[in-house]
């Protein structure tokens, strides 16, 4: 597992060179292993985490433990999740015979496969390639933690904190900010690492909203995915798409027949954040290929409209045509609430919540 780690740890990206690490451990640049050499950054991360003497701290990607040792000085307990067996041995060596030996618990496995225990604070220097799924895994964790201080690739961090109108504002931004308060803490230049990685990093503080907003998260995700499919188009244009209207009308019929209630928010949250993570990964891949969020086809828009719906098959196979009455109903909702000419790229979290409430009040849903 490669990725950015704190002093004595690992950072993402790099070539084939090797660098000698602490305690004689070789760090492989080809695996994205770089050493954070600036102790001031390590201390800043600990300070900004706000660790209390009664806290259980979850550390993801501890590396050889320089940050771990600082955390142990402040916390009641540190639970370190580490995949590299060499790092596990080094962590064990560093605490052996010290007053902190009984404060450290090491979980030797892939963090994405681990059942995370209770913790108050998370400190993570994570592999860039799991930034999205790990972020949403943490946000879905129960009981909710107080805060997470995480090192990300700089551009990813900027997408997390982006506001409406910012070019980086995306589904990732609005979904993360729905579930948490997100703050950019500091930028960490690549020259703070040995050898330097190819990109800069940033540290972000995430504070989960507890309790989370009282909404159906699968409905929310279906709406947001649809709107951000072409975030610079007006909502009027998006909701005039034939396939989108057809699938929304199918959902409408099912809801009218079953009189479903939108309860089970905790189950919805887990299912929705998993989808949010996958969506964010797809958006990252599209951006890396020179694309953007503003590239969803009509069929993809239709599938997004049925985001949480059951039944297999692609939107193309289920192509249909909505009734004129239903189309008028959808557009009337947008018109009445002032959303017809709005664009997702400039809509706030409250705007999306208002839009979802308006549709739901009219009996229009984004899950079937």
Automatic annotation (TrEMBL):
Compositional bias of kind Acidic residues: 291-303
Pfam families from the UniProt entry: RrnaAD (PF00398)
Keyword S-adenosyl-L-methionine: yes
InterPro entries given in the database record: KsgA/Erm, rRNA_Ade_Mease_Trfase_CS, rRNA_Ade_methylase_Trfase_N, rRNA_adenine_dimethylase, SAM-dependent_MTases_sf
Binding site for S-adenosyl-L-methionine: 34, 36, 61, 82, 110, 125
Domain of life: Eukaryota
Keyword RNA-binding in record: yes
Keywords of this entry: Methyltransferase, RNA-binding, rRNA processing, S-adenosyl-L-methionine, Transferase
Catalytic activity, EC: 2.1.1.-
All copies of domain Ribosomal RNA adenine methylase transferase N-terminal, residue ranges: 41-210
GO molecular function, a single term: rRNA (adenine-N6,N6-)-dimethyltransferase activity
Region annotation Disordered: where it falls in the sequence: 284-321
Family the UniProt entry places it in: Belongs to the class I-like SAM-binding methyltransferase superfamily. rRNA adenine N(6)-methyltransferase family.
Name of this protein: rRNA adenine N(6)-methyltransferase
Upper classification of the organism: Eukaryota, Viridiplantae, Chlorophyta, core chlorophytes, Trebouxiophyceae
């Amino acid at each position: 597992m490669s990725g950015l780690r704190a002093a004595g740890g690992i950072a993402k990206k790099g070539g084939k060179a090797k660098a000698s690490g602490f305690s004689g451990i070789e760090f492989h640049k080809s695996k994205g292993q770089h050493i954070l050499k600036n102790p001031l950054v390590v201390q800043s991360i600990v300070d900004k985490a706000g660790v209390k003497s009664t806290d259980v701290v979850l550390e993801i990607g501890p590396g050889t433990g320089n940050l771990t040792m600082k955390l142990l000085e402040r916390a009641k307990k540190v639970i370190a999740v580490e995949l590299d067996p060499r790092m596990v041995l080094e962590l064990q060596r560093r605490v052996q015979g010290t007053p902190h030996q009984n404060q450290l618990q090491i979980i030797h496995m892939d963090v994405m496969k681990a059942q995370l225990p209770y913790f108050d604070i998370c400190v993570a220097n994570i592999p860039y390639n799991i930034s999205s799924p790990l972020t949403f895994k943490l946000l879905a964790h129960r009981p909710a933690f107080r805060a997470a201080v995480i090192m990300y690739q700089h551009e990813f961090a900027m997408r997390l904190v982006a506001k409406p109108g910012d070019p980086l504002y995306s589904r990732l931004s609005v979904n993360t900010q729905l579930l948490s308060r997100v703050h950019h803490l500091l930028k960490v230049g690549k020259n703070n690492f040995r050898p330097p990685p190819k990109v800069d990093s940033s540290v972000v503080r995430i504070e989960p909203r507890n309790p989370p907003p009282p909404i159906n998260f699968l409905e929310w995700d279906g709406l947001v995915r649809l709107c951000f499919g072409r975030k610079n188009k007006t909502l009027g244009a998006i909701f005039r798409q034939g396939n989108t209207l057809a699938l929304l009308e199918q959902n409408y019929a099912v809801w009218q027949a079953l009189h479903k209630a939108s309860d089970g928010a905790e189950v919805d949250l887990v299912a929705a954040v998993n989808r949010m993570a996958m969506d964010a990964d797809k958006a990252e891949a599209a951006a890396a290929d020179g694309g953007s969020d503003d590239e969803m086809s009509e069929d993809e828009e239709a599938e997004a409209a049925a985001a949480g719906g059951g039944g297999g098959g692609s939107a193309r196979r289920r192509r249909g045509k909505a009734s004129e009455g239903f189309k008028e109903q959808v557009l009337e909702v947008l018109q009445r609430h002032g959303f017809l000419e709005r664009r997702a790229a400039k809509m706030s979290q409250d705007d999306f919540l208002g839009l979802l409430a308006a549709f739901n009040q009219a009996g229009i849903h984004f899950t079937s």
